[in-house]
């Protein structure tokens, strides 16, 4: 009866074939079922390394699309065990991979790739020094092969059959956990050059307000005032962090890695200043008087940055202590009697602020600087209003975006004000019963580079 359709031998063969087919399909689904999420890599050339890893993984695993990965990475922010576990849960991933390219010990850059499981535990940390500063083909090949091997091992372990508790073999001791990644380093040097747009307002007043109640002698009792149009200038900024040349050290030394020396220089090309009410002979009979006008600002001193947490995403405390020089000079008329006196502020500058990284590419910062005034220039001479006291303060806002590798664009704004009072000593030629308020404001658009 072997030729009968529906006979017992035929049914046995069908049942065996169906079982084998179901087993093969289950094995295939198990092999293809692991999901991997590759978080955005950080650092120069990082996007290239990330793309290579994603390319080789697509052949063996289910790769979570880029858009939800970026949303989850931005939502959880940090890269600790709990945050990695949260990202894996949200994306339904059993493998989470991320990495960065940063400066290792001394000046040698290094590539690090971390592979975590769904519980956020670190499975493997791949570290490769980059002596030439670039990821060459050999290094890229080693990283690709290592990532594929680790993910394959995780997939095999996930699909391994469970052994009954009583038959569990004696497991070897677990390997030691991978060492945490080294703290990010500050650059050896960073600088920026940009266009400065600035304005100025100067006047006398009482009770810290320019209300016109102050009087000045000799001549008319009204005090001089200055209202400048917007002028364009150049800003150059440079900071050096020499302690990054030292080998990594423990203890308190690591907190000094952000100590640097910096300088800023501004030069503004002001148009000639015009006297609104010139005397008949002040300009040689001309109806309009125009006087040469110049402005310079220079500051140099110590700058310090301190990370609250030793991670690239950590906020930074920024402080500074240095010397400042700010001059605004207006040429006098032909008779030598100035209308608005020139100033040359020299001061000790103390600043404090906060810098906040956003998504690895953008940083915003806010700070305030106090000026302990030492001198104020010609306005303090006996030909003007004589000695007295004073001070100054400046507020700053900065936004910076990394465009490509170490190249960035920076937009900054500031508002600065100096005030002076006079005690009438040294028998000055001019007197006032008020105080001065000298305000400057501006915007700067700069191109920056970090090395």
Characterization of the model:
By secondary structure, this protein is an alpha+beta fold. Helices cover 18% and strands 41% of the residues. The chain contains 5 helices and 20 strands. Strands 6-9-10-13-14-15-16-17-18-20 form a 10-stranded antiparallel barrel. It has a 5-stranded mixed sheet with strand order 2-1-3-4-5, sandwiched between helices. β15 and β16 form a beta hairpin. α2 (46-57) crosses α5 (137-159) and α3 runs antiparallel to α4. It is elongated. It starts with 7 loop residues before the first helix and ends with a strand. The model is unreliable at 1-12, 14-31 and 160-168 (pLDDT under 50).
SSE blueprint and pairings:
Layout lengths: L7 H25 L2 E4 L7 H12 L4 E2 L2 H11 L4 H11 L3 E9 L5 E9 L4 E8 L7 H23 L29 E17 L10 E2 L8 E2 L3 E10 L18 E10 L4 E3 L13 E3 L1 E15 L8 E15 L12 E16 L3 E14 L14 E15 L2 E14 L10 E2 L2 E16 L1
Parallel strand pairs: 1-2, 1-3
Antiparallel strand pairs: 3-4, 4-5, 6-8, 6-9, 6-20, 7-19, 9-10, 10-13, 11-12, 13-14, 14-15, 15-16, 16-17, 17-18, 18-20
Helix pairs in contact: 2-5, 3-4
